[in-house]
Write a structure and sequence with these properties.
Radius of gyration: 23 Å
Bound molecules: ligand BES, zinc ion
Structural class: alpha/beta
Distance between the termini: 36 Å
Length: 480
């Protein structure tokens, strides 16, 4: 989708449709909307849409009145959704060229970026493998404002949303087509395209490094594992910090020997959503060029119950030297992340964030609305929460007290890989904390938020691309 910014009176904007946000309790009089408010055809409630044709004095072919809710509550997150919903509505009617008006009250750079993000994210469909569909998509999206030049904000929004869609495309790939080696291939070509450093550790190198926790998971599959490392270095760093982004890359999670029930197992192709998001974030970071070093670490494996698979009761030695009793082979994410976190620390990362579809328990705790956020450092926690808030990705802080460590006691090793029945998202995070050690670290459990089971007016069913935007904001807003 091509994007641009125009400073023009709305009546003169050329487009197949001009989206005009209208607010609840604030009767819009332009475009003949006053009568429609009076008739009760639109009230300005959130995501209400009313399409008008041949509006006198307007160059655009159509005007789409788009309910924005109460003006006091309207923020960039609401605008992102509204742009998405409007674009999805218009593209279903084969409109190819769309403009969106920013009213003067809501016309900052953040609003302009959010409008473009909403449009590009809303336009996206996970339809790569549909051969018979009449695929509709939008060609042009223009943000129209009256005051500031928002061209750069529009570009930033496009870069971030395209990176998020890049992640969504990877997440939607099925396990047979996107194996760990294929993720590595995709990472390499992305890195080449955007001039990032890329290195992929293979099985032999991981053996040499002693990554017993990761390799234990990989044993059950005929597909070899890969640890992807992608680095960005600023031309001029304004910070000694080195941010490490670690993402779970299980290309398919059958559960291994502790096999999952077949019902819904097809969804487990999205068990690499954390890894895909970190790749997406790097793609945007390479273009937006923050002033600190950022490196992504993506451990990729397929969790399968092959004849050489690890068994419940096995004891593995992690790269850090800690021993782990594998009670449940389906708790594999924490095992591969343990070694990736250790490796990231050894590579010099001073701050870490991981994203992982780690537990069903986080979905029980928070539903599908909030990412579960865990941290060993209040400063780091606040940085990520702040970035999430401004990026419009909802996250909720969860407890991580040392007392929970007791839940992971093993009679035979330093740690068990699962706790009991209770507090499953917390015990998973406590496990990771043992490997983050004293490095300021945030863990994001995205099991409930990386996939939409039903489409929303502003987003297709399937992968959401969380938390790409937060990671990009975190890097861009970094200041010591
Ligand atoms: N990939 C799953 C977590 C998951 C569950 C993601 C549902 C998305 C939706 C993870 O590897 C897993 O299987 N976790 C187990 C842990 C348990 C064995 C302690 C779980 O949550 O059931
Ligand atoms: Zn699992
Ligand atoms: Zn998993």
């Amino acid at each position: 989708m091509q994007t641009s910014f125009e400073r023009k009176p709305l009546e003169q904007v050329e487009a197949g449709a001009l989206i005009v946000p209208v607010f609840e309790g604030r009767k819009e009089e332009r475009f003949g909307a006053g009568d429609l408010f009076d008739a009760g055809e639109i009230a300005g409630k959130p995501l209400e849409l009313l399409l008008l044709h041949h509006v006198p004095g307007v160059v655009a072919t159509r005007v789409l009145l788009a309910g924005a809710g109460k003006a006091e509550k309207f923020d960039s997150a609401e605008l992102r959704k509204l742009a998405g919903a409007a674009v999805r509505h218009l593209k279903s009617k084969s409109v190819k060229s769309i403009a969106m008006a920013l009213d003067p009250e809501h016309a900052s750079a953040d609003f302009a970026s959010a409008a473009v993000e909403g449009a590009i994210l809303g336009d996206y469909e996970p339809d790569r493998y549909k051969t018979d569909d009449d695929k509709k998509s939008v060609d042009r999206f223009t943000v129209v404002g009256a005051a500031d030049d928002l061209e750069d904000a529009v570009t930033r929004g496009r870069i971030v949303a395209e990176a998020q869609n890049f992640a969504r495309t990877l997440v939607n790939e099925p396990g047979n087509l996107l194996t760990p080696s294929k993720v590595a291939e995709a990472a390499r070509s992305m890195a080449t395209e955007y001039q990032l450093d890329c290195q992929v550790l293979d099985l032999a190198e991981m053996e040499r490094l002693g990554m017993g926790a990761l390799l234990g998971v990989a044993r059950g599959s005929a597909e070899p594992p890969a640890l992807i490392v992608i680095g960005y270095k600023p031309s001029q760093a304004n910070s000694p910090a080195h941010l490490g982004l670690v993402g779970k890359g299980v290309t398919f999670d059958s559960g291994g020997i502790s096999i999952k029930p077949s019902d819904g197992m097809e969804k487990m192709k999205y068990d690499m959503a954390g890894g895909a998001a970190m790749l997406g974030a790097m793609r945007a970071i390479a273009q937006l060029k923050p002033a600190l070093a950022v490196t992504a670490f993506i451990p990729c494996v397929e969790n399968m119950p092959g004849s050489r698979a690890q068994r419940p009761g096995d004891i593995v030695v992690a790269m850090s030297g800690k021993t782990i009793e594998v009670i449940n082979t389906d708790a594999e994410g924490r095992l591969i992340l343990a070694d990736a976190l250790t490796y990231a620390r050894k590579q010099g990362c001073t701050h870490l964030v991981d994203a992982a579809t780690l537990t069903g328990a986080v979905v029980v705790a928070l539903g599908h609305l909030n990412v579960g956020l865990f941290s060993n450092d209040n400063g780091m926690r606040d940085r990520v929460l702040q970035a999430a808030k401004s990026a419009g990705e909802r996250m909720w802080p969860m407890p991580l007290e040392d007392d929970y460590k007791e839940y992971l006691k093993s009679a035979f090793a330093d740690l068990a890989n699962v706790g009991g029945r209770w507090g499953g998202a917390i015990t998973a995070a406590i496990f990771l904390k043992e490997f983050a050690e004293d490095t300021p670290w945030v863990h994001l459990d995205i099991a409930g938020t990386a996939w939409l089971d039903e489409s929303k007016p502003f987003l297709a069913k399937g992968p959401t691309g969380l938390p790409v935007r937060t990671m990009v904001r975190l890097a861009m807003g970094w200041a010591d």
